[in-house]
Every structure is written in C-alpha cells, then in structure tokens.
Design brief:
Layout lengths: L7 H16 L5 H36 L1
Helix pairs in contact: 1-2
C-alpha cells in the first residue's frame, strides 16, 4: 500500500491515521507490525519528497542570484 505512488498529502494523511490508531490502542498485536512497516515506508516517501523539493528550491534560488 505504501509503495504505490501517492502525493505527499495522501501519505501524511495515512501516517496520521496510523499514529492515531497506535495512540488509541486501536491496533491489535497482529496488525501492529504491519502498520509500523507501512508507516516506515511512508516516512521515507515523505522525507524523500521533502529533500527533493528542498533541492529544487535551492537550485532555483541559486539561478536567480
């Protein structure tokens, strides 16, 4: 699920859902590992998107100087 192409916003929404379930004990022990693995993949996806956007912004700013 997390490996499908998503937007940053979709990934963040899904992460928020997982965090809410973990915080409210809404996950049973059998699905906890699965959800944590998905969360890890979503975090990597979001981090990569942010780093890419940061690099693009820096490049644009350098070009305007």
């Amino acid at each position: 699920m997390a490996t499908k192409k998503k937007t940053y916003e979709e990934a963040m929404r899904r992460l928020e859902e997982i965090v809410k379930k973990v915080e409210t004990d809404g996950l049973d022990i059998d699905s906890l590992g699965e959800h944590l693995k998905e969360a890890k993949e979503l975090i990597k996806f979001c981090r990569d998107k942010l780093y890419k956007a940061d690099a693009e912004i820096k490049k644009m700013l350098e070009e305007t100087e």
